[in-house]
Amino acid sequence: MFNPARSAFGFLLVLSAALSGCAVPVVTLFDRDNTNGSLAVGESSNTHFFTSDSNFDTGIGLNAGSAYDVEITILSHWIDSYIDENENGEELDERGFDNSIMPFEWLGVTRRSRSHRWFELMLYQSTCGQESLRGVTDLGNDETNGSYRFVAACDGNLRLFVNDTPGFYVNNAGYANITLTRVN
């Protein structure tokens, strides 16, 4: 049954986190890494990522200090509610879109990481928290194959989400194949 007090509390909690300027990975009590082992050097793993998933555990274990390449193949158009193009009129991809596309620019304070673009693909490890949070635009990009490179902040599973407002992932559409390869 709808509880207005609980809904108001949830909204105020999200709003206060957003206004504080903090990036909010939205980790729950049930976020325990269930690592089945990490990748060996040169080994790859594939997973499908849906933009409607606010906290996707890839099940891929990372090792602190190891470098990884991430290849992203968009398999279905990415759409945030009704927004399907970035500020350049291009289809949405892992780089997301600028806050100016939003109907009201003040909505920018509600996204999980205000220092990243809307709908940008975000990577993090819940075992090391904020220090591991990064968007694909923070990563080095290999122009020849389009992959991104990052170094794992700690041991633990890779988690993914698009940078959106907590509680508003149900209006997202699209998915991608993510290939992760351990470099060293």
Give a structural overview.
With 184 residues, this protein is mainly beta. The chain has one helix and nine strands. It has one helix at 4-19; strands spanning 44-50, 56-62, 67-80, 121-124, 134-135, 140-141, 148-151, 156-162, 172-182. The strands form two sheets. Strands 1-9-3-7-6 form a five-stranded antiparallel beta sheet, with no helix packed on it. The relative contact order is 0.29.
From the structure above, extract its key features.
single chain, 184 residues, mainly beta, four-stranded antiparallel sheet, 1 helix, 9 strands
Task: Lay out the secondary structure.
Layout: H1 4-19, E1 44-50, E2 56-62, E3 67-80, E4 121-124, E5 134-135, E6 140-141, E7 148-151, E8 156-162, E9 172-182
Antiparallel strand pairs: 1-9, 2-8, 3-7, 3-9, 4-5, 4-8, 6-7
Q: Which sequence of strands runs across the widest sheet? A: 1-9-3-7-6
How many beta-strand segments? 9
The helix fraction, in percent, is under 10%
Molecular shape: globular
Low-confidence stretches: 4-24, 26-35
Largest sheet: 5 strands, antiparallel
**N-to-C span:** 52 Å
Elements, N to C (H/E): HEEEEEEEEE
State Rg: 16 Å
Q: Quick check: average pLDDT?
A: 86
The SS-based structural class is mainly beta
